[in-house]
Specification:
Elements: E1 3-7, E2 11-13, E3 18-25, E4 33-39, E5 46-51, E6 57-59, E7 67-72, E8 77-82, E9 91-99, E10 103-104, E11 112-117
Parallel strand pairs: 2-11
Antiparallel strand pairs: 1-3, 3-8, 4-5, 4-9, 5-6, 7-8, 9-10, 9-11
């Protein structure tokens, strides 16, 4: 059974930084592209970024230049470094394995809350 456990969310001021982590189990982590999604209050969940098995990355335009995704296959963990945070980044952040660039593959974890105050 696949488990995805996100952590690292917090309340920060605009312009601040956070680093999110996602520990995955029950899957062949190194064989999967991984990504982050987020869901803001009253909005649908949206794709944020993907890192492929070969470490190629893609980002939504809204976070490009501010967020960096990385992975540690030895720890089955994917990270999201978020810099210059904006109030509109406020959301619950989720990770997942990804197919076809941005389609989530497994059931969602509990997510981690990021709140950015202005």
């Amino acid at each position: 059974q696949v488990q995805l456990v996100e952590s690292g969310g917090d309340l920060v001021q605009a312009g601040g930084s956070l680093r999110l982590s996602c520990a995955a189990s029950g899957m062949f982590f190194s064989d999967n592209a991984m990504g982050w999604y987020r869901q803001a209050p009253g909005k649908q969940r949206e794709w944020v970024t993907t890192i492929a098995t070969g470490d190629n990355t893609n980002y939504a335009d809204s976070v490009k230049g501010r967020f960096t995704i990385s992975r540690d296959n030895a720890k089955n963990t994917v990270y999201l470094q978020m810099n210059n945070l904006k109030p509109e980044d406020t959301a619950v952040y989720y990770c997942n394995a990804i197919i076809l660039t941005s389609i989530p593959r497994f059931p969602w974890g509990q997510g981690t809350q990021v709140t950015v105050s202005s």
